[in-house]
What does this fold into?
Amino acid sequence: MGGNGKNVIIIGGKNGAGKTSLLEAIRLCLYGSQGVNKRQGREYRAFLQSRVNRRALRSSAYAKAYVELQFVYEGGNKPLDFLIRRTWSAESSEDTLHIELDGKELNLVEVDYWPEFLKLLIPPGVAQFFIFDGEKIQEIATEEESNQTIVDGIKSLLGLDTFEHLQADLDHYARQKLRAEAAQASQADYKKADAELESARQSLRLCENDLADVEAEMRDFEDQKAQLEKRIARDFGMKFQDRPQLVKERTSVEEQLRAVNDRFEALCGKLLPFAVIADLGRELEQALELERKTINWLAAKEATYPQAEKLAELLFGPDSAQPSPELTSEQKTFLKARLLTLWESLFIPPPAGILNRLTHELPSSTESAIRQVLHESRGPVALELRDLLDRRERLADRLRKLELELNRIPVSDDGKDVFRELSNVNQTLGKLKERRSDLDEKCERYRNEIKDSQRRLAQVEELLSVAEVAEKQLDLCRRIKNVLREYLERATRTRVATLQKNVEAMLQELVRKEDLVARLAIDPKDFAVTLFDRHGDRLKKADLSAGEKEIYAICLLWGLAKTSGRELPVIIDTPLSRLDSDHRRAIVQKYFPDAGHQVIILSTDTEMDKQYYELLGASIEKAYLLNYDSGPGQTRIVSGYFWGTAKHEHVSQ
It folds into this structure.
């Protein structure tokens, strides 16, 4: 803008010249599919393809199109020059976004986050109050109630979507993580783990006491054993001390000898006869082998003999071709027999050693079993029999020696009593040793239980610590939600009061004395709008005229834009089409100049005619005309309005 107090750019054009396309292009450039209310996918792809220049499509099926928007953002310490370009082609299923800042590609955020960056820079919920058309005005004007527009507007102004997402995230965090952590352990779990640890310690103490008693008792019996052994050595000599060991060894040798005899008898009852007649067994195996060869040869001969018979029949049969002179029957019989003999010698010659007749003709399974028995009788069984005989001889010799040694040791009644007492002591010591081993294992088990209980107790303590932190975080989440709720309530009341003030201010500027609406009130709880006449009586929106409803809608949009606190250009498409002359004059004189720091009006010649153009003239910085030429199908952009246009022009096809 020129900085001369003129803040309006007016773009004129008749229906179909492209005014709405300009508004659509701005929304598309900024927000993509969301800006034009198209779902991602097939719907948005069809929309993009329909927005490629038809003449370019005729020349190339891969024609590309783009929209570009350049603006200066003054929200920081210094103005920032942004360039936004959105490109697509006739064959593409999605668009490509490009952003430049001060002439260079944007590097403040990654490319994947450029769309979100644009939404933060110019929120779409807020932009709808600055960029709208007559349809938006008509939509608000024809609503039975204005609550939904107010609700959507307040949500956009306060960023309620962000707060709702934050509350949902807090709920999810509290429900999925914190509550699970808080429930992982309790004081009851700690008491249980501590009781298990104390029980294991008490059991270990009792077990160690029992072990100490057993070891003391063992020492007493060890002393008794030593005294008895000394007595035996003194009264009966050292040989008496060897007697128990000799008796034990004799018992062991007797058991081994019985086992050897049992195995020897078993072998003798099964395979020994075959081992005795080993030579006859070998002859039987050879005979069985020759019979198997003969059987296999006869089977092969029988399988191929029909083929030889068929060949002989073809050569010498009644249906065969007869030589000249013709063969006699004797000659044919001779030649046929000769052919069969040659066939056998060539294709199935008899193996060496073939038998003239079969003696046994055993099944193959029976033959295999006989071969196995004969093989075992000559090999492993013979070796095992020799080993058993050697072992039996050694064991019998040792048994005789043990008997001699035991017979040389005289045993008196006193000696028997001493040995009996020593035997009892040894038995008792053996039982005590077993008891000590059991107690050692038991103590080790209790020590392991103590370690496990200590680990569980440490885990419970750690979980309790986590649970305590989780409980604190849960409480913090609840307090944060309460603060958010309180903040939203206060911010909503403040914004609603500001919105009401701003709407009323514009309403006072635009309404005529004879209009019904004088003021309004907005409930901060449910955003219900109440209209009042000049006498303070409530009005129903249905009682308003069409023009009054549109004035109310424009005031509401202006109030929402004003309440947002953002300095964005206001772009309005066909705003006066449904208003009478008085309301148009009010809009032109009092709304357009104050609608924003930069106002772009898209209008037809019947809306902003020469009279209204002159009324707005003091605020008009520039004027353009969209001039559609139906011949070549082009829209020409020229400086000036419907009258007094300049020669400078730009062609849009």
